[in-house]
Amino acid sequence: MRASRLLIFVLAATAALGQRSAAQPIAFPLFERYVESLRQQTGIPGLSAAIVQGGRIVWEAGLGSRDVEGALPATPDTPYPIGDLTQTLATVLLGECADSGRLNIDAPIGQWSTSIPEASATVRQVLAHASDSAARGGFRYDRGRFAALTLVAEACLGGEYRRLIADGVLDRLGMAESVPARDLEDAGEAARHRFDAADSARYAAVIRRMAVPYRVDRAGRATRSEYGARGLDAASGVISTVRDLARYDAALDAGDLLRPEVVGIAWQNALATNGTPLPTGLGWFVQTYNGQRLVWHFHMAPDAYSALILKVPGRDLTLILLANSDGLSASFSLADGDVTKSLFAKAFLGLFL
Fold first, then answer.
1. Predicted confidence (pLDDT) at residue 294 exceeds the cutoff of 90
2. Whether 349 contacts 293, CB under 8 Å
3. Cβ contacts of residue 58 below 8 Å, gap of 6+?
4. Main-chain phi, psi angles of 27, to 5 degrees
5. What does pTM read for this prediction?
6. N or C: at which end does the chain have fewer Cβ atoms within 10 angstroms?
7. What is the mean pLDDT of residues 44-53?
8. Residue among 67, 57, 52, 43 at smallest CA distance from 326
9. What is the mean pLDDT of residues 110-122?
10. 222-256, pLDDT tens digit by residue?
11. Among the residues of 110-213, which ranges form H helices?
């Protein structure tokens, strides 16, 4: 019943302004009302959001509460675990390796990791969530398989993965409200000693401000939950804010992290062994909607957190959403590779495309 009401709501949203060639100021208040209504209907306690165009934030909002019991509002600077969006950062590191000639992404991943049973699986296939399963056309979204790329990056770049992410992306872009992994809040963690005192103190302060995770029942009641993930690998672990992710997004588009030609390869549909296109590129999902290429990724930690980044490269337009429940993703089967199943994405695409 809830899904039907949400679908009717979003269909009305997509018809409200018709086709648009770019984000327009008149659409931002309307989109915020749609997102706030969807947040309430999906029971998300707190949500932070931003739209980026032309390398700058053109709209941002904090909706609801990052801490319900403490009556603390969500803001664009609220940190959240971004989970599987971390995979896009791994693609930056591995893309740098490949572009410099230090890595052949068509080499078998077995050269670095024994965690993937298929001897023929290549680094490229793991980046694309491709498998040897003909029944699924060669595609299978699997966070555990993607995590095997951690060892590939460490071998190529010569360092521990937390340090590589910090140096290669977060610090490089001035993402001061982002943390490589939650385990850096613990003074006793060996990983923390790889960073100086100032960085360690900054990381701990960011983690203390992190949005509280919630479980939302069918009646929409939110109950504080636990989020067990603490470490970092190529598949998951980074903590960030929508403002910091906007910096990252702008740097990708500007070619400040990778050459545009390398980014372009990552944003093309990969091919299965039988030659059919997959719903993924390298570290990203890729699909076409109304003649526009969509490049995106999502996160879902059941009863805790969810996230979505949705790029429309042809319009130089990006939506970033972070939430402290699983409501951005749980109902939409995004692991199947179709972002238009998300009602949040539908509202965005309907208003701005």
1. yes
2. no
3. 23, 28, 51, 52
4. -80, -25
5. 0.93
6. N
7. 98
8. 43
9. 89
10. 999 999 888 999 999 999 999 999 999 999 999 99
11. 123-127, 143-147, 149-157, 161-165, 197-208
What is the Cα–Cα distance from 189 to 196, expressed in whole angstroms? 13
Query: Which tokens in the block code for residue 176?
Result: 């001061």
Q: What is the CATH number of domain 2-352?
A: 3.40.710.10
For the chain, report the end-to-end CA distance as a whole number of angstroms.
28
Q: Residue 41: enclosing H or E segment and its boundaries?
A: helix 27-42
Residue 49, both tokens: 């959001």
Give, in degrees to the nearest 5, the angle at Cα 143 between 283 and 62: 75
Task: Burial-class residue 221 by CB neighbours within 10 Å (0-12, 13-18, 19+).
Answer: exposed
pLDDT tens-digit profile of 185-224?
875 666 667 898 899 999 999 999 999 999 999 888 999 9
Average per-residue pLDDT for the chain:
91
Burial class (CB in 10 A: 0-12, 13-18, 19+), 66: buried
Q: What's the CA gap between 178 and 241, in Å, rounded?
A: 7
Name residues whose C-beta falls within 8 Å of residue 114's C-beta, 6 or more positions apart in sequence.
Answer: none
Contact 304, 213 (CB under 8 A): yes
Which of residues 149 and 184 earns the better pLDDT score?
149
